Each structure stands twice: as C-alpha cells, then as structure tokens.
Amino acid sequence: MHLHHMLPKHSSYFDYLEDVREDPYYKVLLTVEGHSCQHDILYQVFHFEGDRIARDTLLSQLTRDEAISQARADWIRRNPTHHSEAGKKGGKARAKLVDLNRKIGEKWGKGSWKTSLVE
Q1: Is 103 among the domain residues?
Q2: Is 26 contained in some domain?
Q3: 70 burial level (CB within 10 Å; 0-12, 13-18, 19+)
Q4: Helices then strands (H, E): number in the chain?
C-alpha cells in the first residue's frame, strides 16, 4: 500500500491549501496501481510534469534515477533564471551566506578561525 497526498506536496496547484497539506485527513492508502491512477488524473487535469513522472515511476516505466533526472530538468524549465540569479547581489543564497557570516562574527568576533564553532 502507498500513502497518497490528496493535496500534492510538490505542485503549484492548491497553493492556498498549503497549511493543511500534511493533515492526515488529506492522506489516503492506495494500491500501487491506484496511486499511479491518481497521479495520471492529476496530470491530465493540471499538466504538472511531477504527476506524469510519479505515474510513470509507479508503473515501473522510469527508474528512480530517470525520475530524479526528469524532475530536475522540469524544475529548471519552470525556474529558468535560478542559476543566473544565484550568488548575485541580493540573491537568496548570497543573503543566507551574508547572514551566516554576520552570526558567526557576532558569536566569535574577529578572533582566530581555529576556534571550534561548537560550544
């Protein structure tokens, strides 16, 4: 039996229901065939590649590695500026690094970096 999220975890549809996606009420046990069928229905209605990939993986038409590769390729197609924006001034990754450096500086000052970060 497979646990199926009736409100899919990795999709853009039903975003307004984000706070209840993990509620047990919205999870159901299905056979592998039933789980695949649910993803097929979602793919036909919403055209989200993640559902096609899930369906094909559940039907053993894709290996785990093929599914991961296709999911990554789909994510890159849907987020075309992600790599070009990474690390630029104001980018999320850079902001996290700047914040981490600030926190380390506050904790350890400008002293030697040979000091362990673990208290």
Answers
A1: no
A2: yes
A3: middle
A4: 5, 2
- 40 occurs within a structural domain: yes
Residue 21 pLDDT greater than 70, yes or no: yes
- Which residues does 57 contact at the CB level (< 8 Å), separation at least 6? 63, 64, 67
Give pLDDT, residue 105. Answer: 64
* Nearest to 38, CA basis, from 60, 63, 5: 5
The continuous run of DSSP H or E covering 5 comes out as strand 2-5
Q: pTM of the prediction?
A: 0.62
Identify the domain containing residue 16 by its residue range. 2-62
The whole-angstrom separation of Cα 75 and Cα 79 is 6
- The answer to whether position 11 is within a domain reads yes
| Confidence label for 7 from pLDDT (cuts 50, 70 and 90) | confident
